[in-house]
Design brief:
The complex is a heterotrimer of chains A (168), B (419) and C (518). Chain A is α+β, with helices and mostly antiparallel strands and 168 residues long. Chain A is built from 5 helices and 5 strands. In chain A, the strands form 2 sheets. Chain A has a 3-stranded antiparallel β-sheet with strand order 2-3-5. A two-stranded antiparallel sheet of chain A has the order 1-4. With 518 residues, chain C is an alpha+beta fold. In chain C, the strands form 6 sheets. Chain C has a 7-stranded mixed β-sheet with strand order 15-14-20-19-18-16-17, with helices on both faces. A 5-stranded mixed β-sheet of chain C has the order 2-1-5-3-4, sandwiched between helices. In chain C, helix 8 packs parallel to helix 14. The two termini of chain C are 42 Å apart. Classes of the chains: A alpha+beta (168), B mainly alpha (419), C alpha+beta (518). Chains in contact: A-B, A-C.
Chain lengths: 168, 419, 518
């Protein structure tokens, strides 16, 4: 039986100096210290975003917290057709429809609640809406709270959830 | 009585330096790793807006660790579980007793040696105590009654045994050259030119010793007893609160010891190359003013940088943090002014006693500076190299380092016999 | 028989078959249509079912054409398809396309036809459409949207031909033509919601169901209406444990395609506020909640002297109660209870679903006086399963006196208020069971929604009581219970009750017309 030549697992044989490790170790240390010195001298060029003070800018297509569009008189544009809650894969939109006094409008949402904790921000509700009543263009992604109830947002909240991020 | 007082003062000095270095090292570890990885690192915790580049974070850490629940696993061994962290930390501090951090200080005509215990078997003491440290690790790992902690302890033991041998052998060459086990003798023998330092006479021994010290201190690339990715966090997995903090501090204390040993044995200890005590004492009237001028200029430049930043970033954050550059500028300016103002004391006409103390201070400063540098090397290496695989660790210890250390001993002996 | 060639297939049909039905059989699916309805006369107004018959110069509507020998018909060629698309476009000219707010969306003929046969781009601007009245209430149950109407006249024909009340009609002409109610009338007959069912678009919608739920979210369970002895076949539409509406389910033998408004509203009782929602025991004068184990302990200590069932219970429950009462006395409840006015269409004067079942299980019904007398004759506790004898049989409570009155029921009533023990039970939509209608047809109700948390399934509770009373071979599980039932009731001896067809079964040996008193 002839001995088969075993290939090095990482391709090729290591040279003597590579096998002593030390030159490579020093080379590595040289690379890291180069980073340290560069970063010490150019602290302002660091890619880190200082989050609470700085914000990463997102594309206008970014899907943030939802808002409900208003008619000219301030009432919701939504007609409670439930397309969004039907399309919602997370089942987080809860609408109760009601009879509107104006027969031209006929149907309107008595309640329109979104459970932001369940929402997966997929945007299917936006796409399903036949009236352009729900949008996710507020750009708000800092959604934090101390109780679960805070994430269960109502129609009134969503109507005043402006696209420039302000909440009234 | 005088011996007791002077020893207590020396111990107090050492404890202050070492324990003071621990938070600084933790900060250096975090900030250094951040800069190596192109991150900003800690910069949030502040006292009245003063952040010191993240140096306030260790204070927040201490507060957190103090108030955390002191948890003990249900089936842990009560006594050993509590004892282990104390043992580790205690043994880590013991080693300093024999390390000289200066040659002597002359006060009132009496010379006090700047070492707590000048043992004639100093090196043996260091090796003996350092290897005791593993008992704490083994105890902690075993008493936790956790398989990961136990595996960490087992690894620690075998690693200690493997590298203790090459560590001991790597210094034998040095002992042969200096013909002494006393650390003060070894340091004194490295005075004068830089080629008198141990690493110049024992390059192989120095490399072997440094590698072995890395292994002994369980630092990367030899941190297998902790091995986060495979052992969660190894022997101190079950520890929390101040018990964990003791393990953590012991790690950095061991690092300082390692650095101090490397410095003492191979990098001249407290010696400053060419500037021996007689040189400093003889030219104190020149060296001190130059020293003060350099300090005043450097601090002044730094304070100018701070002031410029204060003017540029007046409203960067809109809170107390905006005051920081101004505050730092004032502090550094005061330091520059202090250095400049001390010319009023006529440093060019320094007295003989004062010159002696100045020489001692420079030597201690040189020692501390070297120690800090080697601590940084520990950190530097950790964030550069990946961890060894266990079989690689054993292979390196037994099949590479041990033969090399033996060869080093033989070659040194032959060379000494010929010369 | 006549031979007809439809889309190249030669088929034979009996003489007099309409071409519409012939095409449905040949194609496997119906031709597009709005106005054609199998139970109503042919109107031929929607013009959607046009087909090409060779030899005829124009397309002809299939619904109003009979099959003839040698006819060659094309239903899928380009000419027919174009005609359907253009007719559909005409129907939609003035349609408001307000599907988002329309309750019909999801089960709408216009939506279906458009997706199957239309798919054109509309050429009518939204603002050019003729607008008509929206959301006009035309009766207690029905609301009309004139804009959405396609004038198929199904509702008009229904009111003329089925109920004979004739409230509806088509008024005006051209694009102002609209469906409406005859002046001074309202759509108030007891079958008005059938017009909602047959309306192919969203013109007529139910006021009760209005805006409650989108139809595509509903799940359906086939069941039986518990409203009267007719036993109309229904579809229970429910979602998330709540019933939203009942719709008739086609059964040629019982109700055809219709059902009455009273029956449709029976679902409301399921979610009534008066539902009993926990076991209760009379402690110091008042009924107080009690644990199930304490309740069973109490029941085990009582010797029952009289078991009273009711015609609202399923056949299984009646049979179990009869078996439990074999050592004591039994009654089928008050014979005068649950009576009302019937009509000659579907609604029966007996407003209980299962009076026939009482006879089949040998539970004698009593008039109020004789029930009170029966109570006086017996000693020991009295068990009332369903019904309200305290209300319908005056003197019942006095006759019970200080004895334990055990009420197994679903809703709070006079009997439950006076009872010593109250056990919450399930209503028809929350359990499986069999009802026997006035003609002796055995039909199954199925569980559609979940019971209230604390309620029990009646037959399981009775089986447990029976086991506790010492019966070693009480049937466990519904299939076993039904086998036991088939053995016990002579009329059912030959039947496999576990494999009942969708339309129910009428046993040949059934004693007919047992429940009726007309």
């Amino acid at each position: 039986m002839t001995a088969t030549k075993k290939a090095h697992p990482y391709g090729g044989k290591m040279t003597f100096w590579e096998r002593t490790y030390l030159p490579e170790v020093f080379r590595g240390m040289g690379i890291t210290i180069k980073h340290v010195i560069h970063n010490l001298l150019h602290t302002s060029e660091m890619p880190t975003v200082q989050y609470p003070e700085e914000h990463r800018s997102y594309s206008p297509r970014f899907r943030g917290r939802h808002r409900l569009m208003q008619r000219d008189d301030g009432s919701p544009r939504c007609v409670a057709c439930m397309m969004c809650s039907t399309a919602c894969p997370a089942d987080c939109i809860h609408i109760v429809a009601g009879e509107h006094p104006d027969p031209a409008i006929e149907k309107f949402p008595e309640t329109f609640d979104i459970d932001l904790l369940r929402c997966v921000y997929c945007g299917l509700c936006e796409e399903a809406c036949p009236c352009d009543a729900i949008r996710m263009d507020t750009g708000i992604y800092e959604i934090a709270g101390t109780t679960r109830e805070e994430f269960f947002v109502s129609k009134e909240f969503l109507l005043n959830n402006k696209s420039d991020g302000t909440e009234v | 009585m005088e011996l007791v007082v002077s020893s207590l003062l020396k111990i107090a000095f050492l404890l202050t330096v070492i324990l003071g270095l621990v938070p600084v090292l933790i900060w250096a570890e975090r900030k250094g790793s951040a800069f190596i990885q192109d991150r900003t690192g800690p910069n949030r915790a502040s006292v009245l807006g003063i952040r010191l580049g993240g140096l306030v974070h260790p204070i927040a850490d201490v507060m957190k660790l103090l108030f955390k629940e002191d948890f003990r696993p249900e089936n842990a061994h009560r006594f050993l579980y509590a004892l282990a962290p104390f043992l580790v930390f205690f043994i880590a501090l013991l080693t300093y007793a024999v390390i000289p951090f200066g040659d002597f200080i002359r006060i009132g005509g009496v010379e006090y040696q700047l070492v707590v215990a000048d043992l004639n078997v100093g090196i043996l003491y260091v090796l003996a105590i350092a290897s005791l440290g593993t008992y704490g690790v083994v105890m902690g790992g075993w008493a936790s009654n956790n398989k990961y902690a136990f595996l960490g302890a087992v690894r620690s033991t075998s690693q200690m045994i493997s590298y203790e041998i090459s560590m001991g052998l790597s210094i034998i060459g040095l002992m042969l050259i200096f013909s002494s086990l006393r650390l003060t003798d070894i340091v004194a023998g490295q005075g004068g030119a830089i080629w008198n330092w141990g690493f110049a006479m024992q390059p192989l021994g120095a490399i072997l010793f440094i590698v072995a010290v890395f292994a002994e201190t369980n630092r990367n690339p030899f941190d297998l007893p902790e091995g986060e990715s495979e052992l969660v966090s190894g022997y101190h997995l079950e520890y929390s609160s101040m018990k964990f903090a003791l393990f953590f501090m012991a790690e950095y204390t061991n690092m300082v010891i390692g650095a101090a040993l490397i410095t003492t044995l191979f990098f001249g200890g407290w010696n400053i190359p060419w500037l021996t005590r007689s040189v400093i004492e003889g030219h104190a009237g020149t060296i001190l003013p130059v020293h003060l001028v350099i300090q005043a200029v450097v601090m002044g430049l730094i304070s100018l940088l701070f002031f410029r930043r204060a003017a540029r970033e007046r409203d960067k954050f809109g809170d107390a943090r905006d005051r920081e550059p101004g505050f730092m500028g004032v502090v550094t300016a005061l330091m520059a002014l202090g250095a400049a103002g001390s010319f009023a004391l006529k440093p060019w006409a320094i007295g003989v006693d004062a010159a002696s103390i100045y020489a001692t201070l420079l030597q201690v400063g040189a020692f501390v500076g070297k120690v800090v540098f080697f601590c940084w090397v520990f950190i530097w290496v950790r964030w550069t190299l990946p961890r060894f695989r266990y079989d690689q660790l054993m292979g390196l210890g037994w099949k590479v380092m041990l033969p090399l250390a033996l060869a080093n001993v033989v070659l040194t002996a032959i060379w000494l016999a010929i010369v | 028989m006549v031979k007809v060639t439809i889309d190249g297939r030669e088929l034979e049909f009996p003489e007099g078959t309409s071409l519409f039905d012939a095409c449905r059989e040949a194609r496997g699916e119906a031709l597009p249509h709005f106005c054609y309805h199998p139970d109503l006369s042919v109107a031929g107004v929607c013009r959607l079912c046009q087909v090409e018959v060779e030899g005829m110069p124009k397309l002809t509507i299939a619904c109003n054409t009979g099959v003839r020998e040698g006819m060659v018909v094309h239903t899928r060629n380009e000419r027919v398809k174009t005609a359907a698309r253009q007719i559909l476009e005409m129907h939609l000219i003035n349609h408001p396309v307000d599907c988002p707010i329309c309750d019909q969306a999801g089960e709408c003929g216009l939506q279906d036809q458009y997706m199957n046969h239309g798919l054109y781009e509309s050429e009518v601007d939204k603002d050019d459409k003729v607008h008509k009245a929206k959301a006009e209430v035309i009766g207690p149950h029905v609301i009309l949207d004139k804009e959405r109407c396609v004038l198929c006249s199904r509702c008009v024909r229904f009111c003329d031909e089925v109920t004979g009340t004739g409230e509806m009609g088509i008024f005006n002409r051209g694009d102002r033509a609209e469906i409406g109610i005859a002046p001074g009338k309202e759509l108030a007959n007891n079958y008005s919601l059938n017009t909602v069912d047959i309306c192919p678009v969203g013109a007529l919608t139910s006021r009760d169901f209005r805006f409650k739920k989108r139809v595509w979210l509903l799940k359906s369970t086939a069941s039986i209406c518990p409203g009267c002895a007719t036993g109309c076949n229904v579809r229970v539409d429910h979602e998330a444990g709540r019933i939203f509406r009942l719709k008739p389910r086609y059964n040629k033998e019982v109700n055809g395609r219709w059902m009455c408004d009273i029956g449709r509203m029976t679902y409301r009782g399921v979610h009534s506020e008066k539902r009993l929602d926990g076991p209760m025991l009379r402690g110091d004068g008042d009924l107080a909640p009690v644990s199930w184990s304490d309740l069973h302990t109490f029941l085990a200590e009582r010797q029952v002297g009289l078991w009273i069932s009711s015609p609202a219970q399923t056949l299984e429950e009646q049979a179990l109660l009869a078996a439990l009462g074999e050592q004591a006395r039994t009654s089928g409840g008050v014979s005068t209870a649950g009576r009302g006015d019937g009509d000659d269409l579907l609604l029966h004067g007996d407003r209980t679903p299962n009076r026939t079942g009482l006879e089949w299980t040998d539970l004698q019904q009593h008039d109020p006086a004789s029930l009170v007398a029966l109570v006086r004759e017996t000693s020991g506790a009295v068990v009332v399963h369903g019904g309200d004898p305290a209300e319908t049989a005056p003197g019942f409570l006095a006759a019970v006196g200080g004895r334990a009155l055990i009420f197994l029921g679903t809703h709070a009533n006079a009997t439950s208020k006076a009872a010593t023990v109250v056990v919450p039970m399930s209503v028809w939509a929350e359990k499986d069971g069999l009802f026997v209608n006035k003609d002796g047809r055995v039909q199954a109700v199925r569980r559609a929604v979940a019971r209230p948390e604390q309620a029990v399934e009646d037959w399981r509770f009775l089986v447990d009581l029976w086991s506790a009373a010492g019966c070693a071979d009480a049937p466990a599980g519904l299939p076993a219970l039904r086998r036991w039932l088939a053995e016990r009731v002579p009329a059912l001896n030959d039947l496999d009750l576990n494999a009942l067809p969708a339309g129910g079964l009428a046993p040949a040996t059934a004693p007919a017309g047992a429940g009726g008193d007309e």
